[in-house]
Amino acid sequence: MQAFEPRDPYGAALGAVQRFAAAGRFLPGEPIVVTDLAAEVGLSATPVREALACLAGQGLIERRRGRGYFYPALDAAEIIDLFELQLAYLNAALTLYPRGLTPLRKAVVAVDPLAGVQALFDAVIAQSSNAALILAHQRVVDRLKAVLTAERGQDDSDGAMVRTMVSMIVEGRIPDLLGQLDAYHERRCARVPALMSEAR
């Protein structure tokens, strides 16, 4: 019996690597061996190498000249930079709402407070309907995957922060929410060393 070969091996390889990264399959700093990964997903090395090159161009995989591909290990400064980028994206989504506050309110009240602050952030960005903003934010989230998982594990607020932020949006208190986000950002940046040790 002949093995199934996808019509688009590059697309299959790209999807597989993205799924692996989203599932936490790679550890920060871990080398990604093209031939091993290709065998694991049932493809030749060429489409896997092309997919890794594409993801390296997006900053989701690290390419080290002469050494191959690695899953990026973020240092504290890079994590803080990515947190700041996420904060900027949230500010944009919360202050540039051409469709009014109603879609924003609907999006955030659907978020389960126990899902954590990141679920709320994702909902705020998604409701913006700005494709470039949504894509840029998803890239930040993808880069921060291990850190966000560690952050979620340290969250013992029982959804209180999410409920507070949702209330502010429902009441139309966007300036207050922006201040709350700034304060949250400062606290999460202070926790970066602990998040880094947990994310390893």
What does this structure look like?
The chain is mainly alpha-helical and 200 residues long. The protein has two domains: 62 residues, Arc Repressor Mutant, subunit A (Orthogonal Bundle), CATH 1.10.10; 124 residues, Four Helix Bundle (Hemerythrin (Met), subunit A), CATH 1.20.120. Helices cover 66% and strands 4% of the residues. Strands 1-3-2 form a three-stranded antiparallel sheet. Helix 4 packs antiparallel against helix 7. The longest helix has 20 residues. Keywords: DNA-binding, Transcription, Transcription regulation. It comes from Brevundimonas fontaquae. This is GntR family transcriptional regulator.
Q: What ranges have pLDDT less than 50 throughout 5 or more consecutive residues? A: none
Q: What is the CATH architecture descriptor of the largest domain?
A: Up-down Bundle
- Report the major sheet: 3 strands, antiparallel
**CATH secondary-structure class of the largest domain:** Mainly Alpha
Question: What is the CATH topology descriptor of the largest domain?
Answer: Four Helix Bundle (Hemerythrin (Met), subunit A)
The end-to-end span amounts to 42 Å
How many domains in all?
Answer: 2
Q: Any idea what the radius of gyration is?
A: 19 Å
Strand order of the largest sheet: 1-3-2
